Amino acid sequence: MISKKDITKRFISYVTIDTESDPESNTTPSTEKQWDLANKLVQELKDIGLEEVTIDENAYIMATLPSTIDADIPTIGFISHFDTSPDFTGANVNPQVIESYDGGDIILNQFENIILSPDYFEDLKLYKGQTLITTDGTTLLGADDKAGIAEIVSAMEYLVQHPEIKHGKIRVGFTPDEEIGRGAHKFDVKKFGADWAYTMDGSEIGELEYENFNAAGAVVTIKGKIVHPGYAKGKMINSMYIAQDYINSLPRLETPEHTSGREGFFHLHNIKGDVEETQLHYIIRDHDKEHFEARKEVMKNLAHEINAQHGKDVVHIEIKDQYYNMREKVEPVMHIVDIAEEAMKSLDIKPIIKPIRGGTDGSQLSYMGLPCPNIFAGGHNFHGRYEYVPVESMIKAVEVIVKIAELTAIKNFEN
Ligand SMILES: [Zn+2]
């Protein structure tokens, strides 16, 4: 359908443009350099023949592939982000293409002795004989999520060149700043105008996700009383000891390092304190909405208990919801997941359906009125020097996009 050479070339043309986002910035996009790739993508979408290609003042890109049939069928969308994670540098990416991978160690960087080994990264074994694109060991690759962009552009190009394939109207959306949690917040869902969409932002081939955490952040502030230690008896309140009580009163095994699957947790990620004041920064995560609410109650009640013991203003807690499980918004329109699953099966891809232990742009978009499950883009080991992507997985993702477009047109929906 699409050649390995073409998609490799396209992918490399994206990852060699630095688009690292910056959580400290207040602008959108958070970094000027994201415009470099954004402007190139706008031109490319026009060149391959898409219509209504737009880019707004925040670098959100949208485009349309018109319907090829005269029927009232849903408009679907495909979405990716073009920024890369600030966790690791994305400047001067120098991709290495390894053809017919032999299943052994890959030397990413001879000088620094950086090796991508299947002994440590067992997933590599799945791709023996395939073509891998890796880093040179000094940067991330940016397959998250430029693989997704390469796949969507390639699928649209293929559909433009094959007008005999019957499909409805398809919308394409590329966003900045996903990696700093702001990919969806300025996304104009109304302008996008799709009935539903898919983010092409998952990892291993077959991944299909429509569940993510409910998420909140909590700041627990504990006030102490500083008195000269020599005269402190009965007077000093050391906020750090009260903080310790607070920490120890939460279940020690309900933490990220002791949980998996659909198990939720309390995660203490930062402590800052002295005698007078200690601050504990937590994140709260749970797929189940009731359990999520219960976790927040546990943290509040604990604060009340300590206040009852030490005086009413010792512990102050502030909890802010961050995002919610998209399952609630996707389940009523479950056919959108079923279509993706059917598309994969018809292409001999084994669907891997599992809850995300995190959030996605799709979860925010789902709550903004655009139900948006997540599909694999093919890469592994995101946000670091060991990131790689098999070209065969990217081609499969292109095929999944085309198949979803076809299936949406032949199903009978009442909308
Ligand atoms: Zn991503």
Automatic annotation (TrEMBL):
Cleaves the N-terminal amino acid of tripeptides. Zn(2+) 2 binds at residues 144, 179, 383. HAMAP family: Aminopeptidase_M20. It catalyses: Release of the N-terminal residue from a tripeptide. Binds 2 Zn(2+) ions per subunit. CDD domains: M20_peptT. Coiled coil: none annotated. The active site is at residues 83, 178. InterPro entries: ArgE/DapE_CS, Bact_exopeptidase_dim_dom, Peptidase_M20, Peptidase_M20_dimer, Peptidase_M20B. This is Peptidase T. Its EC number is 3.4.11.4. One of its GO terms (molecular function) is tripeptide aminopeptidase activity. Its cofactor is Zn(2+). Belongs to the peptidase M20B family. SUPFAM superfamilies: Bacterial exopeptidase dimerisation domain (SSF55031), Zn-dependent exopeptidases (SSF53187). The keyword Methyltransferase does not apply. Residues 210-312 form the Peptidase M20 dimerisation domain. PANTHER family: PEPTIDASE T. The keyword Metal-binding applies. Keywords: Aminopeptidase, Cytoplasm, Hydrolase, Metal-binding, Metalloprotease, Protease, Zinc. Zn(2+) 1 binds at residues 81, 144, 201. It comes from the Bacteria. Its main location: cytoplasm. It is found in: Cytoplasm. The gene is pepT.
